[in-house]
Amino acid sequence: MPASPLLLTSTALRRIETDAAATLPPGTLMDRAARSAAARIATSWPSGAVVVLCGPGNNGGDGLVLARMLHEAGRHVKVWALPASDAGRPEDAQRAWDALPAGLLQSGEPVWPVGNAGTEGAGGAGGFGQVESAAGGFGENDSAAGDPGLRSEALSAALRDAASAAEIDTDAGAALDATAGDVTPTEVTADDVTADDVTAADLAGDVASREPVERGDTVSTDLLADRSDADLLADPSDSNSLFAEGDPADDLSNEPLSTGTLFDAPLLDQGRITDGLLLDGDVPRGVIVDALFGIGLTRPLDAQAQAWITWANAQPVARLAIDVPSGLNGDTGAAQDACVQATHTLTFIADKPGLHTRAGSDVAGTIEVDDLQLAAFVDASAEAGLGAGLGAGLGVDAKADAKANADVGLEIGLNIGANAGAGDDVTAAAPSSTDLPTNDIGHLIRKADVPSLFQSRKNDTHKGSYGTLAVLAGAPGMTGAALLASRAALLTGAGKIFVALADTPPLSLPCDPMHPELMVRDAAGVLDAADALGVDTWVAGCGLGTDDAAKGWLTRVLQERPDANVVLDADALTLLGGDQVMQAAFRQRKGIKVLTPHPLEASRLLGSDTHAVQADRIAAACAIAARYGAWVVLKGSGTIVCSPSGAWRINTSGNPGLATAGTGDVLSGMLGALLAQGLLPEEAVAGGVWLHGAAADRLVEQGIGPIGLSASEVAQAARWIRNQG
Ligand SMILES: NC(=O)C1=CN([C@@H]2O[C@H](COP(=O)(O)OP(=O)(O)OC[C@H]3O[C@@H](n4cnc5c(N)ncnc54)[C@H](O)[C@@H]3O)[C@@H](O)[C@H]2O)[C@@H](O)CC1
Ligand SMILES: Nc1ncnc2c1ncn2[C@@H]1O[C@H](COP(=O)(O)OP(=O)(O)O)[C@@H](O)[C@H]1O
Ligand SMILES: [K+]
Q: Taking the CB of residue 538, how many other CB atoms lie within 10 A of it?
């Protein structure tokens, strides 16, 4: 399922939520969100335990409803909830709290449910759920765990009574399920058996056979019967210990295993223990649901939330983030020190910018969007954004995009509909209009969004058809920067390229031996002849330097030939940021203007600091675009592209292989080449950024990176991608 290309900030989302909620019965959206998550879990983690961590707000409410739904479906669910805030829970979340079935909520710190990674099937009745309830929970939270000796007796009796081949089923509904014997859930009751017992039994099976034991595996009861209670069960001196001293399993760790610590790294490294006691190769089963905080995270996490997140991140199971990984700002992609490292994020109503820029792509895992059947509202928002200028500058059909999103959402909605409850019979009335501020809606940049990169060339063309580019760059000692940009322009298809070296004759490099197609001259020489040469696009700044000579050449670029396109990078940005004469000249230019700052250069253009830029990359890119009247490419993980009118997009391609010197030079050369070839700015800028990242992705696929990927290779890979179509 492709991710929605539409991105909404929390302001836009809240507006939609409010509008929609006003037309729906209370709790409908939370119900839909929870049902969506339940469907996702049923598909991806059909067995195994589900630990739901819930926060104080509606994100926590989603988690609480989800926990109830999963429990009712017979899943083995544990809930840990942060305390409500002083103001109490929001209405929907409070309703979810009140409806949480008894026994699911755990006290203390979260632990992985030991001894049971149960699955559906029992519907909660007569199953392990009852055992849990009676025992007050598993593991360290098991305050009523009882006397280990008693548990030992009960379990041993159960095992001995079992027929020669007994199935140890740690599943819900059958604490011990003897397929060929006498042990049934009714015989082994909550009073007789605790989770610790089953844990011990499973581990004992493993120890006895030295083979991994999985839930459902058949284990010889002879082996089990051969072992004494002392071998099988907890050391009576330590109610949490699962092994008596000298037990072979103890060899696996220097410390006695205790409940809740079954994911000890040494054990995992040996592939011995997964999924809360179940030995299941390298693939633990079960999932932790992160429903701590969503788009309402407004301040630093407190110690308890941080500890829970740290715990969740340390468990070798999947982590499904509800809406947004907790600790991540859904608008900006800024992550707190403690942030859920999700393997999957299921996000609601629309995709969020913070999932795609800065730390977002590091912590979100696989992103899925469910519009909660609010396509009409999303559609109207996109339309309103379009009316306010959004998308117009990008040449993006935002309405069509929104429709596509709606279709995606509906498809998900229909799937969910198969499990639908009462709330889903209600269709929200379509909104009449919304008027979101322009920069609360953006888009992703994907291959499909930049088709003109792949348009075939007409036969009846010549080198003049593909533009004449001049690259003002490469002061002495930085010649390579000029070559990187110029070669990238060549490989991206520019018709003619002049390298205007930031130097005076005689040049130390009269020609590029690798690419003699490039016409290398001194900067003044190219500037003097620019009219005659027909330069229609300038790329300026790569290794240009910031001395007076550089300043003079750049001023000429900005003041002369105002119809030519300019792409400014690196030193040109530093010079521009500090020179009002240049800024005035820049603003007055009629050609297409592109600025490609990394965060430090962006801060110079804004007179702020890098921290401020990175704290809200979209806002920074939009601010630069507005101040300079230019297209802005704010580089980094999740590069932001912003049009002069404030329409922003986030690139989806690229990887940390690009974090190497010279890749920015390559990007500016590519952007210049695409403009020189006459692509519309929205496709040249967004397309160049996407192509640059996609080239790096291809190199990684080929094993040429991320480590050691070099800038020159990016240009070559980009050429290949363009020609493949
Ligand atoms: N309202 C709606 O219509 C819907 C909301 N949904 C869910 O609700 C979420 C938004 O709910 P909320 O607005 O309640 O926000 P959250 O649940 O994300 O968190 C806000 C709550 O956490 C507190 N908080 C914020 N930062 C904190 C911190 N650092 N430490 C401790 N407490 C902190 C706030 O005071 C507030 O109580 C969405 O992300 C989504 O998961 C979904 O159910 C879909 C529908
Ligand atoms: N971690 C990353 N993930 C994705 N892209 C990255 C990453 N690090 C750097 N890049 C990209 O690499 C390029 C680096 O540009 P820049 O910092 O100007 O380098 P240089 O000046 O050395 O050429 C930019 O396009 C940037 O977006
Ligand atoms: K969350």
A: 30
308 lines ligand 1 (CB under 6 A): no
Probe target for ligand 1 pocket from 13, 15, 297, with the most ligand atoms within 8 Å of CB? 297
Identify the weakest region by mean pLDDT among 265-279, 311-325, 549-563, 683-697. 265-279
What atom of ligand 1 comes closest to residue 18's alpha carbon? Answer: 3
Residue ranges per structural domain of the chain: 27-112+285-374, 128-259, 464-724
Give the CATH fold of the 464-724 domain: UDP-N-acetylmuramoyl-L-alanine:D-glutamate ligase (3.40.1190)
Residue 130's pLDDT band (cuts 50, 70, 90): very low
Dist. CA 292–CA 442, nearest whole Å: 26
Say whether 59 counts as a known binding-site residue: yes
Single-letter amino acid code for the residue at 84: A
Give the distance (Å) from ligand 2 centre to CA of residue 713: 14
The domain made up of 27-112+285-374 is a member of CATH 3.30.40.10: no
CA angle 630, 636, 639 (to 5 degrees): 50
Q: Which residue has the tokens 């490099």?
A: 509
Of 512, 519, 527, 524, the closest CA to residue 495 belongs to 519
Whether the CB of 623 sits within 6 Å of ligand 1: no
How far apart are the CA of 656 and the centre of ligand 2, in A?
8
CA of 532 to the centre of ligand 2 (A): 35
Q: List the structure tokens of 289.
A: 């649901």
Transcribe 259-320 into DSSP letters: TT-TT-HHHHHTT---STT--BTB----EEEEES-STT--S---HHHHHHHHHHHHSSSEEE
DSSP code at position 100? P
Q: Which residues surround ligand 3, an ion (CB under 5 A)?
A: 290, 321-322, 326
Ligand 2 proximity of 480 Cβ (cutoff 6 Å)? no
Per-residue burial over 213-225, b if 16 or more Cβ lie within 10 Å, else e, is bbbebebebeebb
Which ligand minimizes its atom distance to the CA of 342?
3
Whether the CB of 661 sits within 6 Å of ligand 2:
yes
363 CB within 6 A, ligand 2: no
Q: Ligand 2 pocket, 658 CB below 6 A?
A: yes
* Closest ligand 1 atom number to CA of residue 34: 43
Res. 513: pLDDT tops 80: yes
592 is in an annotated binding site: no
Tally of CA atoms within 13 A in the half-sphere of 341 that contains its CB? 11
Q: Residue 58 annotated as binding?
A: yes
Q: What is the pLDDT of residues 138-191, one digit of tens each?
A: 222 222 222 222 222 322 232 223 222 222 233 322 222 222 222 222 222 223
CB 592 within 8 A of CB 625: no
Kindly provide the ipTM of the predicted complex, given to two decimals: 0.93
Greatest Cα-to-Cα distance within the chain, rounded to the nearest angstrom: 99
The answer for 146, left when phi > 0, alpha when psi is -120 to 50, beta otherwise, is left
